[in-house]
Amino acid sequence: MQLFRIDPLTKKRLQRFRRIKRGYYSFLILVVLFVLSLFSEFIANDRALAVKYDGKLYFPTLKFYPMSTFDQKDEYGFDDVEANYLGLKTELRELRAEFKQRMESYSGTEAELIAAEPKYARKDAWVLMPMVPFDPYEPDFTYDVPPPNAPDGRHWFGTDGQGRDVFARLLYGFRISMVFALLLVVLGQTVGTIIGSLQGYIAGRFDLYGQRFIEIWGTLPFLYVVIIISAFFIINMWKLIIIFAIFQWIRITYYMRTEMYREKTREYCLAARSYGASSWRIMFRHLLPNCLTPLVTFTPFFIVGAIGSLTALDYLGFGLPAPTPSWGELIDQALQSDNRDKIWLSIAPFGAISITLVLVTFVGESVREAFDPKQFARYK
Amino acid sequence: MIDPKSPMADGAAVGGVGTELAKDTILRVQDLKKHYPIRGGVFSRVQAAVKAVDGVSFDLMKGETLGLVGESGCGKSTLGRTLMRLEEPTEGRVLFEGADLAHANKKQLFVLRREIQMIFQDPYSSLNPRLPVGDIVREPLDVHTIGTREERQRKVEELCLQVGLKTEVINRYPHEFSGGQRQRVGIARALALEPKVIVADEPVSALDVSVQAQVINLMVQLQKKLGLTYMFISHDLSVVEYISDSIAIMYLGRIVEMGKKETIFDAPTHPYTRALIASVPNPDPRKRRKQAPIEGETPSPVNPPRGCAFHPRCPFAQPKCKEARPELEPFSGSGDPRHVVACVRKDEI
Fold first, then answer.
1. pLDDT tens digits for range A237-251
2. Is residue B347 assigned to a domain?
């Protein structure tokens, strides 16, 4: 109950944020995009959303069906691998066209033709594919020229060097970037806030030595550390988040520390001590809610930073492991010497990164403005 | 170091020599000191100390109001905070009914805090802007886990009524109130634990004069009703004259004169007190000032003048004033048995 009651100050700031249209709409767009990207499997996938076959309904997004379910066989004759839904869709379309053609020259009714040739019974089966019927991992080799292939009706944003759909990779890359950035920022900000607040609240020696430690820690070159670590370990997303967080927490400590220093001298803090409130209670119930401005205002910019760094690291090849859809990896492909003329490879990730970062920055700017205690100050 | 007394123990039984309290003494402060070290040099050695409170002793009688007066920087607020243990005392004892607040450990202190509470100076910063008034007043009860949820809620309503606020205020936030109302909330919070002693640190100096009177009257009413004992810190002599039973005058970390209100106002003895009393503006233009107000600046509490700290500004100063620091001694000239003065020339001047 305590958590969900919004005090009037916060309420006012939220109202102010909603009034700043640019930031508010950017925020809404980002939220919608992010929520949509969480359902990427239903937007860009080579598994069908739904299949009606022999009178039964299938939902292949949620469950694996082997080829045998739909009487398919791959080129080697196996039928226990994943069904090819795009192929099934083409088969059925051809079947319907064939049936239509036969009907024109056939004298009897449709039912009679089906009775004569039972394979036409399947003309009513259908396959509903997602908006983009390609998986970010599966290459598409149906073209005559080797990939990357330019954008067309089949691949809106073209395909990359391995023949994978660029749009699908952008979409999954967006999800990975956002999830990565959010997790990283939550982890880093939590650690940084706790350490910075403790420094400010306890002060004295703890603050002195803590500050020196942070100064030394802050001079560690991040990129080299990542390169060294990735030489020893296989990096996955969680490890990468933790490595990032080890460096990420530092910046917020400066702000939380000074906020605490300022806030703890206020008399309400003395009053709390005078009736015997514990340090824990004073810190988290009284001081922290009054020190949240830097935390809230810096978070969007840290998200921008996190997305940027992840992309940079992926570009350099020290980020997420190879088949993972990633913007940095796409840029890397685009900049390879034999891909210089494949302009879609660079425009697509560039556009995605720019739009995302601009949106997050708009949100950050507006949050900063909405939380600005000096509302009427003008900086020139 | 003296062992902290159990807060539950009877004062007389554990007090030992010199700590037996008179029957109606509720709080005895003995030689309380608060020095802030100034560090410097290569190894951060203590080079000097700001002697904010430098050996203060007094008794607070049950049900009385002691006014503590002094100019800015004389250590009044530090004294209040030190005896509340908001600042760690450097030396000395604070005996509440025989239990030593100054040396009490965490657990003992927690229990003792229920008996002695504080009202703060600035009604704007003394209330957490993020909490509704009801939560602010209820928090001491929460911390001390007194009663059930409903009982606490009822107690909060009761407290609000007691300080002259409507019960609707419980869900409102501090910024919706005026300074006077905020100070009432502060008083309600201080009363929540039903303390016996309240240290009021300039509770009205941040308020408008018209509101000051209301808050002071409220404090007087509450004292009568609840039998509270006040230590009232202020620099405003007229406020102190109105509310206090006895008055202590502080100068540079020490009490220089203490006695009944009438004694201090009618027959001030210490030269500093005289100057203070004389500086109160008199509404009657025909009455002339008897004495020129004191001149010069307050000396630094790091290096207070040798001997009597007031001698550089004192119109009665003599060479002997520089020799030894005068202690508080009873002054019989006024006929007040509690009248004490720290001046070597108190009988001459």
1. 888 899 889 888 999
2. no
CA distances from A177 to A28, A30, A37, A219 (A): 18, 13, 11, 26
Q: Please answer yes or no on whether A290 and B130 come within 8 Å at the CB atom.
A: yes
- Which of B86, B125, B129 is the closest to A273 by Cβ? B86
Phi, psi of B249 (to 5 degrees): -105, 130
Q: How many domains does chain B contain in total?
A: 1
Q: In what helix (H) or strand (E) does residue B108 lie, and over which residues does it extend?
A: helix B106-112
- Inform me whether the C-beta atom of residue A289 falls under 8 Å from chain B C-beta atoms: yes
**Within-domain flag for B97:** yes
- C-alpha A302, offset from chain centre: 15
In a domain, B256, yes or no: yes
Among residues B55, B69, B54, the alpha carbon closest in space to that of B202 is found at B69
Counting one residue from A and one from B, how many pairs have CB atoms under 8 Å apart? Answer: 67
Percent helix, percent strand, percent coil in chain B, to nearest 5: 35, 20, 45
Q: Could A8 and B175 be called an inter-chain contact, meaning their C-beta atoms sit closer than 8 Å?
A: yes
CB contacts of A273 in chain B (<8 Å) are 86
Task: Note whether A271 and B186 are within 8 A (CB).
Answer: yes
Q: How many residues does chain A have?
A: 380
Count CB-CB contacts under 10 A for residue B314: 21
Beta carbons of A274 and B117 less than 8 Å apart: yes
Using the CB atoms, write b or e for A90-118: b if 16+ within 10 Å: ebbeebbeebeeeeeeeeeeeeebbeeee
Q: Which residue of chain B comes nearest to A287, CA vs CA?
A: B128
Average of per-residue pLDDT across A257-268 = 92
Q: Residue B52: which H helix or E strand, with range?
A: strand B45-61
- What one-character DSSP code corresponds to residue A322? T
ipTM (interface predicted TM): 0.84
CA angle B39, B42, B46 (to 5 degrees): 25
Distance from CA of B77 to the nearest CA of A (A): 12
Determine contact, residues A121/A112, Cβ cutoff 8 Å: no
Beta-carbon separation of B125 and A266 below 8 A: yes
pLDDT value at residue A374: 64
Rounded to two decimals, the pTM is 0.81
Considering only CB atoms, which chain B residues are within 8 Å of A276? 109-110, 113-114, 140, 143-144
In order of A72, A109, A116, B107, B153, the CA distances from A98 in angstroms are 19, 15, 15, 91, 80
CATH classification at residue B304: 3.40.50.300
Q: State the Rg of chain B over Cα.
A: 21
Which one-letter amino acid corresponds to residue B262? E
Does B349 map to a domain? no
Distance from CA of A304 to the nearest CA of B (A): 30
Closest CA to A176 of A310, A372, A360: A310
Three-class SS of residue B68? strand
Give pLDDT < 70 ranges for chain B: 1-23, 287-293
Contact residues on chain A for B127, CB-CB shorter than 8 A? 268
Residues spanned by the domain of B35:
9-280+292-341
**What confidence score (pLDDT) does residue B2 get?**
42
Residues 6+ apart with CB under 8 A from A27: A363, A366
φ/ψ bin of A146: left (φ > 0), alpha (ψ from -120 to 50), beta (otherwise) = beta
The length of chain B is: 349
Contact flag B186-A271 (C-beta cutoff 8 Å): yes
pLDDT the model gives residue B3: 44
- What is the least distance, in Å, from the CA of A266 to any CA of chain B? 6
